[in-house]
């Protein structure tokens, strides 16, 4: 089994610096270091101009970072919005973004010093007042999908045009990296006020690109922001995302030169690309903290019964899934934290070993001696259908009968997560910069992946708070062990396998850096002659 180690590396924003020696202190880390080394090698001076053509497998759920929920949105949000805190691609260690520095002046006060000379796409000045307006909307807007992310935020105080204080209701050492995700993607107060819900489709950020066109399920066109605060970026004149939900078609479009970049490919496409794209494209495969998992709506029968959820976990043969669906390139999962990751408790690595007899016994104890029927939601593309069939057959063997309901990623998300339809859905959870956030978003009462909005068990809620309030890495590690154990005991999801980030791109595409989230950031790319 492949593993990798990621230290809880922190910077001057209340955290500790990361050294290369520490990063490479494990032998298994050499795999990760090698995987991320190539894009960082010295290259020719970036060329200006050109449009990067991208085969995108999903239509966005929203281009307002505070109202969308799909993890696949990030690839389109990153060009439009800077985050208050950024992260190092290979380690997820925090680094300056729209905030140039930050510090906890006391355990419940985080002060951000903001970058000056930044303007939103509508010409409005980015300053502390704009940050306050954005975070106030994130906390209070009925449509906000990030309320759970920033539950510790009590109020925002403008100290100066370039300084803002975040007053918390409890210590939250995870907050800097939480601000490296959706909650920290600052939107223009004027743009939001003028557009209202139209801001979902007409977003106004500070990023290196501006939205020009979004035609649903067809194309998203972005153009260079000529007033971007970083004079070195962007190199490109624009980005064109062609929505191509069939991954084979997306891959072929890059090999044929119709597009320049494709992401979120499956291992099957990697082998095809290796065989047919030699000399024409670059095939990249890098470790990520993204995993396939089954999300349960445990507000509904029969998945409100913990024994049924445990039975599903015991019924799944994760090794077989990895071999059949991921060509052996994945890593079997037990929790949302991968083996070898700094916050993961290795004692839990085989918690739900494949045990069909145990699964059948649990169904009987739950009052279903003749098995149980559940509705199973998922995406309709060919690769997703294959993954569904593997899981459905494994569940069938223990008496869990599934009815598959499939459609587009956006439609399935809306129906399952927002409307509360269905019992179970298979999704690719793409991870977040701080490891506390996945647990908050998937299991927290207000988490956007908690379909039934069921409050978490008391021990999980306590461990969640501890994972965000502990000031030391060792203290956080203990809290994460309790958090993982509580999620497993209550079988709040079924984690299946961590996946590699597989991208293919034309040889003229330069400057691309993969990241551990498996969510490509395209802002630094340029096109060579």
Automatic annotation (TrEMBL):
Pfam families: SBP_bac_5. GO terms for molecular function: peptide transmembrane transporter activity. Gene3D superfamilies: Dipeptide-binding Protein, Domain 1, Dipeptide-binding Protein, Domain 3, Periplasmic binding protein-like II. Residues 94-444 form the Solute-binding protein family domain. Keywords: Signal. GO terms for cellular component: ATP-binding cassette (ABC) transporter complex; outer membrane-bounded periplasmic space. InterPro entries: Peptide/Ni-bd, SBP_5, SBP_5_dom, TAT_signal. It comes from the Bacteria. It is found in: Periplasm. PANTHER family: D,D-DIPEPTIDE-BINDING PERIPLASMIC PROTEIN DDPA-RELATED, PERIPLASMIC BINDING COMPONENT OF ABC TRANSPORTER. Belongs to the bacterial solute-binding protein 5 family. This is Peptide/nickel transport system permease protein/peptide/nickel transport system substrate-binding protein. It comes from Ancylobacter aquaticus.
């Amino acid at each position: 089994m492949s593993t990798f180690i990621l230290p809880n590396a922190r910077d001057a924003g209340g955290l500790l610096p990361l050294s290369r020696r520490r990063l490479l202190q494990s032998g298994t880390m050499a795999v990760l270091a090698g995987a991320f080394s190539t894009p960082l090698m010295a290259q020719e001076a970036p060329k200006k101009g050109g449009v990067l053509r991208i085969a995108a497998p999903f239509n966005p759920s929203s281009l307002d970072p505070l109202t969308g929920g799909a993890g696949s949105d990030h690839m389109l949000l990153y060009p439009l919005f800077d985050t208050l805190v950024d992260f190092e691609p290979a380690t997820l260690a925090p680094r300056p973004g729209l905030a140039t520095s930050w510090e906890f002046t006391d355990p419940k006060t985080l002060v951000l010093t903001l970058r000056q000379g930044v303007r939103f796409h509508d010409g409005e000045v980015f300053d502390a007042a704009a940050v306050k307006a954005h975070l106030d909307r994130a906390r209070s807007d009925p449509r906000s999908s990030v309320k759970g992310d920033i539950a510790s935020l009590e109020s925002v105080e403008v100290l100066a045009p370039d300084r803002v204080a975040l007053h918390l209701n409890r210590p939250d050492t995870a907050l800097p990296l939480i601000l490296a995700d959706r909650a920290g993607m600052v939107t223009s107060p004027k743009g939001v006020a003028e557009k209202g819900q139209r801001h979902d489709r007409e977003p106004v950020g500070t990023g290196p690109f501006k939205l020009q066109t979004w035609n649903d399920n067809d194309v998203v066109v972005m153009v260079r922001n000529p007033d971007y605060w970083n004079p070195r970026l962007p190199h490109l004149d624009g980005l064109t995302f062609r929505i191509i939900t069939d991954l084979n078609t997306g891959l072929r479009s890059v090999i044929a030169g119709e597009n320049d970049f494709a992401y979120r490919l499956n291992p099957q496409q990697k082998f095809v690309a290796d065989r047919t794209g030699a000399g024409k494209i670059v095939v990249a495969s890098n470790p990520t903290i993204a995993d396939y998992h089954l999300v349960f709506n445990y507000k509904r029968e029969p998945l409100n019964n913990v024994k049924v959820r445990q039975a599903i976990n015991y019924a799944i043969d994760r090794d077989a899934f990895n071999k059949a669906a991921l060509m052996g390139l994945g890593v079997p999962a037990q929790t949302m934290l991968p083996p070898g990751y700094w916050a993961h408790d290795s004692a839990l690595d085989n918690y739900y070993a494949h045990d069909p007899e145990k699964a059948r016994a649990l169904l009987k104890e739950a009052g279903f001696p003749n098995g149980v029927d559940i509705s199973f939601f998922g995406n309709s593309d060919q690769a997703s259908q294959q993954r569904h069939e593997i899981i459905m057959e494994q569940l069938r063997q223990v008496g869990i009968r599934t009815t598959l309901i499939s459609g587009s990623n956006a439609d399935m998300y809306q129906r399952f997560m927002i409307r509360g339809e269905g019992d179970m859905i298979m999704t690719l959870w793409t991870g977040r910069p701080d490891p506390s956030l996945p647990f908050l978003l998937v299991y927290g009462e207000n988490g956007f992946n908690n379909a039934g909005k069921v409050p978490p068990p008391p021990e999980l809620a306590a461990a969640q708070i501890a994972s965000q309030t502990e000031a030391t890495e060792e203290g956080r590690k203990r809290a994460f062990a309790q958090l993982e154990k509580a999620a497993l005991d209550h079988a709040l999801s079924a984690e299946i396998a961590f996946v590699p980030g597989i991208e293919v791109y034309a040889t003229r595409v330069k400057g691309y850096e993969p990241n551990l989230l498996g969510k490509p950031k395209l802002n630094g790319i340029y096109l060579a002659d």
